Amino acid sequence: MTQGLPPFPATLRRIVTVTALSALFPACTSPLTPTALGPLAEGATPVSVSASNPVLTPGRVTVSFPLINGVFSITLRTADGITGTISGTYTGQAVAAIPGNTTAALELHIAQTTGAGSLITGLEADGVGAFVDEGDFTLSLKIASSASKILDGSKVILRGTAQLSCSASHRTVVTQHATDSTPRFAELTIDLQHEVGTSQCSAL
User: Fold this and answer.
1) I want to staple 132 with a disulfide (CB 3.0 to 4.6 A). Which of 34, 41, 136, 180 is the partner?
2) Predicted confidence (pLDDT) per residue in 77-109, tens digit
3) pTM above 0.85, yes or no
């Protein structure tokens, strides 16, 4: 049996900023905080995330954020009705362009499979949207099967939403859920959860 992701609290009462990304750029304000890129949950205040290696160009700032301690779970159903699961871990990097979108590249490692999921030998993923904040995101998933042994170049596009919480180690936790239906899979659902490595928060 595949273990599911830990439950996400229905309501995050409050997330208190501990340090400010804007301190890195005194001339800039809230647009540099990842939570400014998407809507906040009711009752939440912005989460502090320190940028790694910020790059400044005229009228534009690019900052990167490590995504750590990631766990994922995929549930799928093939066109002929066979079901299966895939679960594992991942790390990644998110890059936010101000102004612009946040993009992310994930390195997924399969740990356990069941049913139709046992035919999957490799996964690659990249996305755009809420990977360090709350809101909508899109994930592009490449799948390698046991038949080809290599990525066939086709992509499954999943769309979903992300929510924030605060971990026991006071890092921002991003929990994501996305779904899609394709000719290859009658149903495909993915749940992801990771910490933003340079963040600091506290939940009261």
Assistant:
1) 34
2) 988 888 999 999 999 999 998 888 999 999 999
3) no
CA–CA dist 51, 40 (Å, integer): 19
Q: 99 preceded by cis ω (within 30°)?
A: yes
**Cα→Cα distances 73→89, 142, 178, Å:** 9, 15, 11
63 by Cβ neighbours in 10 Å (0-12 / 13-18 / 19+) ranks as buried
Write the pLDDT tens digit of every residue in 12-49: 333 333 333 333 333 333 333 343 333 333 333 334 44
Quick one: which of 19, 5, 3, 11 has its CA closest to 165? 11
- The amino acid at 198: T
Q: Identify the CA nearest to 120 among candidates 148, 101, 144.
A: 144
Supply 58's token pair: 């005229």
For the chain, the structural domain boundaries read 15-203
For the chain, the residue count is 204
CA distance 49 to 199: 4
**How far apart (Å, rounded) are the C-alpha atoms in residues 136 and 182?**
20
Q: Retrieve residue 14's tokens.
A: 């409050």
- DSSP letter, residue 6: P
